Amino acid sequence: MSRTLDYLFDQNVEWAHRKTRLDPGFFRRMAEQQAPRFLWLGCSDSRVPANDVLGMDPGEIFVHRNIANMVHTSDMNILSVLEFAVDHLQVEHVVVCGHYGCGGVQQALAQTRGSMLDHWLQPLTMMYHKHRARINAIPGEAARLDRLCEINVEMQVRRVAATPIVENAWARGQPLHLHGWIYAIHDGLLRDLGPHLSSIDERDALPSIDQRVVDPVEPVSAMRRQAMDVFAKLDLHEAASCSCCIRSESASPTPSALPD
Ligand code: CO
């Protein structure tokens, strides 16, 4: 087996040629400056690459990734990225993006302890332990994990919102919007979980994270909302022509708000 990775250099050359062929000025523009509007705080999982899932080119999104998309307020790495993105690049949006089935988050549910990862995940593990009875009552291991993945996204958005970097940006009137998203590897789609925060007042008005665990904005709601948006945009005539969608007069009563 080769000890060098020549094939990766070959792939790189192919990629650079393809880019240049499609857009001769691409690399010249890249070299001049970067002006991304988005900061992505995501998981290191190899299946969730920010640019790819958003269909974005280099230069369009500033990225920080770590295991389980955690935001530690003592983590110089993430704080440096956040400060540079907010203060210097002046990004308008900070997205915390988790993903369902996250192996990092899974460790927070595990019984074994002692690895570095357990230290890394400690705030999430504590959250799980605090609400263990409620989370364990969710039927199915995968569903429990997915719920914890969602809770983790919301926790980390709140942690971003609590940093002096973001507080100062909001205090000086800089437009800065925080988002909590989750990605599903099985279908390649993003879900908007919230919270959406654009000011200190909005942050301070949030119910406690404990309250959100007890009274969740369940993923079904976010998915249903998106599905409803899609259906709302469908051509009604097109829908009516589908025989399986045609209601008979004797069918069970439908809400009057629905189109006939
Ligand atoms: Co992950």
Keywords:
binds cobalt (II) ion; disordered C terminus; 260 residues; 14 helices; globular; 12% strand; Beta-carbonic Anhydrase, Chain A; alpha/beta; five-stranded mixed beta sheet; 5 strands; single chain
Task: Give an overview of the whole structure.
It is a single chain. With 260 residues, the protein is α/β, with parallel strands linked by helices. It has one domain: 3-Layer(aba) Sandwich (Beta-carbonic Anhydrase, Chain A). The protein is built from 14 helices and 5 strands. The protein has a 5-stranded mixed sheet. Helix 3 links the parallel strand 1 and strand 2. The radius of gyration is 22 Å and the shape is globular. It starts with 5 loop residues before the first helix and ends in a 20-residue tail after the last helix. It binds cobalt (II) ion. Cobalt (II) ion binds at residues 43, 45, 68, 99, 102-104.
H/E topology pattern: HHEHEHEHHHHHHEEHHHH
* Multimerization state: single chain
User: Main sheet: which strands, in order across?
Assistant: 2-1-3-4-5
DSSP strand tally: 5
* Distance separating the two termini: 67 Å
Tally of helical runs: 14
* Rg calc: 22 Å
CATH class: Alpha Beta
Taking all residues together, what is the mean pLDDT?
87
Overall SS class: alpha/beta
* CATH homologous superfamily descriptor: Carbonic anhydrase
Per CATH, the architecture is: 3-Layer(aba) Sandwich
Beta-strand content bin: 5-15%
CATH topology: Beta-carbonic Anhydrase, Chain A
Q: Report the sheet with the most strands, covering strand number, pairing sense and barrel closure.
A: 5 strands, mixed
Uncertain segments of ≥5 residues (pLDDT<50)?
239-260
Percentage of residues assigned to helices: 40-55%
Report the principal-axis shape: globular
